Amino acid sequence: MKVLSRIYNFLVFGFLYAPILVMIVYSFNATKSRTQFGGFSFRWYTELFQDQVILKSLYISLAVAALSAIIATLIGTLASVGIHAMRGAKRRAYLAVNNIPVTNPDIVTAISMMILFVFFVTRMNGMEMGFGTLLISHITFNIPYVVLSVLPKLRGLNENIFEAAQDLGCPPAKSFLKVVVPQISQGIVTGFIMAFTLSLDDFVISYFNSGSTAQTLPVTIYSMTKRPYSPKINALSTLLFVAVMILLVIVNLRRSGENKKEANH
Amino acid sequence: MNRNSLTKRLVTAPYTFWMLIFVVVPIALVVYYALTDANGRFTMENIMAIVDYKKTFGVSVELALISTAICLLLAYPLAYTISRMKAHRQSTMVMLVMLPMWMNFLIRTYAWMTILENNGLINRFVRMLGGEGFRMINTNGAVVLGMVYNFLPYMILPIYTVLTKIEQSTIEAAQDLGANRAQVFRRILFPMSVPGIISGITMVFVPAVSTFVISKLLGGGKTFLIGDIIENYFLGNTGTVNYNIGASLSLVLMILILLSMAVMNHFDKDETSGGML
């Protein structure tokens, strides 16, 4: 039984990693063939770093992820405090609206915002699809995840301390920063990281709301898959995979280090 | 008291404003577009047009259900064995499950094109062994494979999370009382893992039924899913763009998913309370 389950685990993990392995191997292919391996080379990596379209979209992806995560964390954290204090039907209504972007399929969220933007462009001639609409759409799908990670942290909060700080003459904004924020910082950080990664990873919502001027990396990758095969995608994917792996290993090492520290105390 | 309620109203103001304009209004606009024609006059025609896409809805739901079932069958044994490992091995395994998830799903889907192609790795291997190559890419099977591959971790993780909470002693107690393997699964493991299975099913089914990328890349335009049709109505050629029909299809998709989630939640309540008894 033990051997069987080992073999089974091996097969499932093989299934999960085989395509990634294939991609890594072919990113070092000297020829353009998708299947014949014609010797080892860094050719596609050099071409990747000379591709202005890819570099620009990487920059846009990072900018949108950082900006949308910061703004969503600000709006979401403040809102969590308010929602936490709500009771009854009002609270239920807020949480229901908060859940709309979480439960809806991405494509529905994407087209609903696209209709809004097009509606305004045609009716009011105010704005064009581009970085602005892209940023707005990312903030919108990020906010609910911030609320969902901050709200549970507020449950264990002692509200008397917040009031005590104010009674002692600390202005509300300052006492919020000094008293409430430190107690829920874990939830805020989780929310921010979640917002950042969701934004970086998103394709569907960016695809419908970015227009032609502000394409994110996934949108560029999508348009590359439609054109004739280029191993540059493999090189790019390999680099992303290595970056993610290093990041996860660092996070895990730090976590196990902290656990050891706690165990020693 | 007054001072506090005012600050509390102020802190939610940006959120209320944002969610109203960018979540509630857009959903209302989808409903509005679905129920009007190009000139803004009320019509039921877009909703009626859905009858033409009966087949597409059928195929989308069918492929998504098959993928969800395969994911569940593949994920459960793996999640179970991971949940019975030592703590430090568990966290390594969970990291191994999550690592591919961090890759963009376009890249993961694209990788399969290389493997499944007519001159791809599998076919070359088959020919090397003297067999005849067969067509895998641009079939429904390839689309299902792409869905299973992309969404499998979403099934493994929630099931693992509930299984890891079941103490080994609970299973041993059942065995001591004479339960065989099948009975342990049916009476202990399965009832206790229902919440994880439910969230796994929703996390796989929702993106699978609404995808348009996997069907485009691995179905090669032969497999049309509801997502492909919606995408075509919003971003297709100028001749095919029709927000009104696109909106009505999205509305139906949204309702379909809300209904299936309501059904799933109903199951969840029934099963867990049943399992407790």
Task: Describe this structure in a few short sentences.
The complex is a heterodimer of chains A (265) and B (277). Chain A is mainly alpha-helical and 265 residues long.
Number of domains of chain B: 1
Element string of chain A (H = helix, E = strand): HHHHHHHHHHH
Q: Which class do the helix and strand fractions of chain A yield?
A: mainly alpha
**Which spans of chain B of ≥5 residues are poorly predicted at pLDDT below 50?**
271-277
Beta-strand portion of chain B reads under 5%
Number of helices of chain B: 12
Instruction: Decide which structural class fits the backbone of chain B.
Output: mainly alpha
Q: What are the secondary-structure elements of chain B, in order, as H or E? A: HHHHHHHHHHHH
Count of distinct strands of chain B: 0
What is the makeup of the main sheet of chain B? none
Shape of chain B: globular
Reported by name, the CATH topology of the domain at 52-223 in chain A is: MetI-like fold
The first-to-last residue Cα distance of chain A is 40 Å
Describe the 3D structure:
The complex is a heterodimer of chains A (265) and B (277). Chain A is mainly α and 265 residues long. Chain A contains 11 helices and no strands. Chain A has a domain at 52-223: MetI-like fold, CATH 1.10.3720.10. Helices cover 82% and strands 0% of the residues of chain A. In chain A, helix 3 packs across helix 10 (217-226). Chain A is globular and about 75 Å long. By secondary structure, chain B is mostly helical. Chain B is 77% helix and 0% strand. In chain B, helix 3 crosses helix 9 (181-209) and helix 5 (105-116) packs across helix 7. Chain B has helices at residues 2-34, 45-48, 54-83, 87-98, 105-116, 121-128, 140-163, 168-176, 181-209, 213-219, 226-235, 243-276. At the A-B interface, helix 1, helix 3, helix 4, helix 5 and helix 6 of A face helix 1, helix 3, helix 4, helix 5 and helix 7 of B.
